[in-house]
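Issue: copy button drops trailing tokens. Both records pasted manually instead:
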Amino acid sequence: MPKKGRLEEIFSKALYADDPKLYSVYYRDCDSLLEVSLSEFVNVSENFELIPPNRVMKITKAGKVLYSKKNPQI
């Protein structure tokens, strides 16, 4: 069984063991960076079908960065 990646671990913990509304997800949408709560991101992305995880640039919880893709634009 393959090991989960860091991003998958954060999503799993937030969705099933914590309050997803406490998490902010920053993702690329064309040429802009959008910020939404994790629960809203799951709805908008239709459970990662419309917005794949590779477009997630950063995840924060209470101002603390939990995940950040190395990208000079952020």
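Record 2 (pasted manually too):
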Amino acid sequence: MEKTLGSLLVVDDNEMNRDLLSRSLERHGYTVTVVAGGADAISSLEQVAFDAVLLDIMMPDISGWDVLKWIRERFSREQLPVIMATAKDSRTDVVLALQCGANDYVTKPLDLKVLLARVNVHVILERTMQSLKQANQQLKISNDQIQSDLTIAAEVQQSRLPSKSLKFHGCNVAWEYRPCDKLAGDFLDIFAFNERYLGCYLFDVSGHGAPAALMSSAVSQTLKPILNETCLTSQINKSHASSSHDGLMINSPSQVAESLNEIFPFDPKIGKYFTLIYGVFDRSLNQLRFTSAGHPPPVILYSSGKIELAKISPGFPIGLIPKNNSRYEQYTEVVLTLNPGDRVIFYSDGVLEAMDTQGNTFGQQRMLASLAANAHRSLDESTDSLLAEVLDWSAPRSPGDDISILALEVH
């Protein structure tokens, strides 16, 4: 069946006009239905979908004005274009027709070339609007599915965070985690290797959204303390490890960073890398050994009230410089011997770089002031307060980066 330009309804009480219009429009590729009056027009419109209506005003049964009113109660201008065709050509009639919902107005005797051009324009517009509507509907369906998938992915990602009720012998822990989007590039964890050693880390993948979250998931899985040959954080009977207890060898923080740097080389196509702070806490000695890979230095808050940033070489982010590069430097470590009441706080740069409405960053000094001011409160309350201050600083906007805080307190 040959495809037509569109289907038209011609409403005119003059048989000669109907015949002339139908022949001319059909010759130019339209399918045409003709009716002699308003009642038949309404009946046809109730049964058939048309692309446009060519409507006479003066008819004996139901006037074109009433038919137009009936149409506009059911169809918008975009859904069903109406072109009024009449011998009445006063400015008042033209304005009235447009105010009543007509898309266009032509006068008799009809100039068929002009009429055809106007029909073409309105049919094309109607088809375009319908196509856009369908495309928008499909886009909404797709977007709703994407948002649903992102919500599920975010729930999965956050389900892998440590429990808020975690308790360890010898220390308290607290953490906060606030993605700037549904999915985050930040991740943190603290876990027990055994009765003596705890592992803890916080890392920040560059960028946001799904690509950063996928890399974050891969990194966190790699750091998971599973006893097998591929485990990055600990081994059984491995002589190169830094410490052992109950047959378990705990890999040093610098060794973990170096291994990650080999496993996650920078790929220009993906453009992702990450900063990392990784530590091992010896509960028998109250010693925290940690390394930094391009990450902000931890905060040390002593029970005496003194507060400072840990003095450590920042290192370079994981993946940026391969081991065989002349610029490569080994990751260094810091060992802190802590006393009861001392706290160490890891954090992502989302804390420091949160901006207020004037573009001022939250910064190190505000972070240190918040932690010092809340030193008398519990570790949970202190980290909650720091997060609240950062969010208040950014309000009414959300922070432009993920925010992660991981704190440890010796007792």
